[in-house]
């Protein structure tokens, strides 16, 4: 069993437990249910840099990345740097995140927030909305076409945008549908953790122009972004590269400045 399979098994158990503790009716009373969401796809279309900066404490492949920043420090730094949006990891067991991180991020900044999570159930989308998220991530590797359709439709009904993550042509072909806003290509194989920009390059022409193209993971240099832009990519998700420094906001500022 690979790491992704283990994460999904644990996630399904976690969702069952959460549903038994916090009813849907409680999530729906959140003030954020009335809040108009901010569009990441529009921000990416209008940006020269296209940076989606990530708050990420650790990962299964790298163990600890950084526990020394507060969420507020990181996200305010990213907003000041000119990031188009912020990805907030909310998985606890494998990435050291939580929904509280999303809530704190929402209280601190006014740019689009992505709930970065292994979504397997509509309940998690309600959680995302209740904690101030503007968009969700769906991972094609762990969902059927039917599940992608129903989960993306549900997200859209709540006013959330959808970023669909793929890793190969098979995942892309089963996933293309009008309820998606952005299609992201993960340069890291979630089963082996091998990283290569070739994944983004090879799939670029297969992604219809109706969707904003995003390249995710393994992007650590200006050269990598300049290499990917001719392939039509408008968004670049970067986490580790900023989080592993002494000042994530400053690192993002210097990086984005070079892109402009």
UniProtKB/TrEMBL annotation:
UniProt keywords, alphabetically: Amino-acid biosynthesis, Aromatic amino acid biosynthesis, Decarboxylase, Lyase, Tryptophan biosynthesis
E.C. code: 4.1.1.48
Domain Indole-3-glycerol phosphate synthase: 4-254
Signal peptide: none
Lyase in keyword set: yes
CDD domains: IGPS
Keyword Lyase among record annotations: yes
Pfam families listed in its UniProt record: IGPS (PF00218)
GO molecular function, one term: phosphoribosylanthranilate isomerase activity
InterPro entries the record matches: Aldolase_TIM, Indole-3-glycerol_P_synth, Indole-3-glycerol_P_synth_dom, RibuloseP-bd_barrel
Pathway: Amino-acid biosynthesis; L-tryptophan biosynthesis; L-tryptophan from chorismate: step 4/5
Catalytic activity reported: 1-(2-carboxyphenylamino)-1-deoxy-D-ribulose 5-phosphate + H(+) = (1S,2R)-1-C-(indol-3-yl)glycerol 3-phosphate + CO2 + H2O
GO biological process entries: L-tryptophan biosynthetic process
Classification via HAMAP family: IGPS_B (MF_00134_B)
NCBIfam families assigned to the protein according to its UniProt record, in alphabetical order: PRK00278.2-4
Family to which the UniProt record says this protein belongs: Belongs to the TrpC family.
UniProt name for this protein: Indole-3-glycerol phosphate synthase
């Amino acid at each position: 069993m690979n790491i992704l399979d283990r994460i999904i098994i644990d996630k399904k158990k976690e969702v069952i437990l959460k549903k038994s503790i916090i009813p849907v009716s409680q999530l729906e009373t959140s003030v954020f249910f009335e809040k108009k969401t901010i569009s990441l796809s529009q921000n990416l279309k209008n940006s020269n840099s296209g940076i989606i900066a990530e708050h990420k404490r650790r990962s299964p492949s790298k163990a600890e990345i950084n526990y020394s920043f507060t969420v507020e420090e990181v996200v305010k730094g990213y907003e000041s740097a000119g990031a188009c949006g912020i990805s907030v990891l909310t998985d606890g067991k494998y990435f050291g995140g939580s929904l509280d991180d999303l809530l704190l991020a929402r209280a601190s900044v006014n740019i689009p927030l992505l709930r970065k999570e292994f979504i397997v159930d509509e309940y998690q989308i309600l959680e995302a909305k209740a904690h101030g998220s503007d968009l969700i991530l769906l991972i094609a590797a762990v969902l059927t076409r039917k599940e992608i359709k129903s989960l993306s439709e549900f997200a859209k009904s709540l006013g959330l945008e959808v970023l669909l993550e793929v890793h190969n042509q098979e995942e892309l072909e089963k996933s293309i549908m009008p309820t998606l806003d952005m299609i992201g290509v993960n340069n890291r194989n979630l089963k082996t953790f091998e990283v290569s920009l070739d994944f983004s390059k090879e799939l670029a022409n297969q992604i219809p122009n109706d969707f904003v193209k995003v390249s995710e993971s393994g992007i650590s240099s200006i050269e990598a972004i300049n290499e990917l832009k001719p392939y039509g990519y408008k968004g670049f998700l970067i986490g580790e590269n900023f989080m592993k420094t002494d000042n994530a906001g400053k690192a993002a500022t210097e990086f984005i400045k070079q892109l402009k």
